Structure formats: C-alpha cells, structure tokens
Give the backbone structure.
Amino acid sequence: MMNEKPLVSVLMTAYNRERYIAEAIESVLASTYRNFELIIVDDASSDETVNIAKGFALTDSRIKMYVNDHNLGDYPNRNTAAGYAQGKFILYVDSDDTLFPNTIQQFLEIIRPLKNFNFAMYWEHSNETFVLEGNEAMQRHFYGLQFLYMGPGGTIIRRSFFEKIGGYPEKYGPANDMYFNLKVCCNTSILLIPFELIYYRRHEGQEVNNRFSYMYNNYMYMRDALEELPLPFTGKQLHWLKKKNKRRFVVHLFHFFRKSFDFKKTRYAYTKAAFSFKDVLQGVFH
C-alpha cells in the first residue's frame, strides 16, 4: 500500500513543449518506483502543451496540473513547482527530457543508510557513490576540476532543505543553478552519484544555447557568490578569484565583439553586468 503522501515529487515545468511533453510524462509514469507525484506547471504556453498534459492528468491521480496566469520564466517557474510539492525529495524532469525507469529506485537505495542527506548530484568522473563535505567540494571546484555546474535535472534535493536555503535565485538567467549549487555547498555536504538521472535532450529551443545570456550572467552570479556566500577561502584567495572572474568576462566580451561586431549587444552585456572601467583594468592586468 502506498503512503498517504508521496515520498518523491517529480517536478516538470513546461513552456511550449507540445513536441516532447507526452514522452516526458510517459517516462515518469514508467518509473519502477511508484510512490511519487508528478507536478506539471505550465508557464502560459501558447501551443498544445496544456491540453496534452491535462489529458494525462485525467488518467492518473498522481499527476497534478497547474497553469500560470502569465509567463514567469524558467527558474521562477521551478520555484513555483517546488512550492506545490508534498514529497520528501524533489526531482526535476524537464518537459523535453525523459526520466530513466530505475532512477528513483536507485537513488532511494543509495540514501537509505544515510542520516543527513540533503543534496545529490550526478558525477560523471567516478564509478562509485561518495559524499563530499561542502568545503571540500568548493576547494575542488575552484582549484581543481570544476564540477558544480550540474543543472536541476542532474540533482535530487530534500525538499525541506531546498525551502530552508530559499530555493533557486531568479536573477541570473540560465546561470541561476550555478549560484544555487555553490550555496548548497555552503550549507551541507553533497552526495555524488555515478549514474545519470535523466536523458537530457538537446535541441535548438533550449536556453543552454543562449551563449550571449550566459556570458554576462556567469560573471554576475560568480561576482555575487564571491561577495555574498561564506566560501571557505582566505581574503587573498577571494581577491584573486574576483580578479579572475573579471578577466574571464573581459575575454568573453572581447571574443563576442570580435565575432559579431555587434556593438549594441556588447554594450548591453557590459551595462547589464554593471561592469566599470576599473573592472576592465583589473581584468586585463589580472
């Protein structure tokens, strides 16, 4: 018999995904683990996404369907979906991706002996599951192999922990998850698991293809993280990392302009990032 409340909340945000959402929903329903809820939150789609999802909701009581009155955007909608969740753990399966059948079952078997689990992330560089303390994870990320770039579809999170740290930020565009992952490491250890959770579909309509937006948002989230988060670094290390971040932005801005000769967009990125001439000099002479 299933528990009164689902153990796992699968969160599916959608915007104009009529081509893919049926397959995404079917993949969740095919999970070998059954005590879940599937929360679908449509972000004011203009195609048949809502009608397709509602059709599935009529056939399975585990599916809860919500439609936003207006378009919120990617990460505000992810936070909205999490607000509807009842499960102990949340797992994002985007409406253009598919869940592997054994993902939830494998995850639950791994965390059963763990007492203080809050956050799991797919780790492609190991065949074993292991736990990293937050400080060690950040030392590895900043001074070794950078790996804290995993998006929502590669993570599973204890819902109470997600709520405790305020969910995803919403001001860094497609880079909101990167700030979030650093914030996670400031508040808990992370569980690295050696298997992918979802099949991540690549197509032209994804935000990941918006390199221009990533250019300035990557600078902004890192700038703020180095100022706001209790990172485990000395003052000297933080100063070096701040200058390195500025240099990276200068280089990316230069390469963008050299390839595009689009002065208007280059200026927009420069202004959006609140970059100053002093920042330029610090970046150049890093």
About this structure: The domain at 8-201 is CATH 3.90.550.10 (Spore Coat Polysaccharide Biosynthesis Protein SpsA; Chain A). The chain has a mean pLDDT of 94. The radius of gyration is 20 Å. The chain has eleven helices and ten strands.
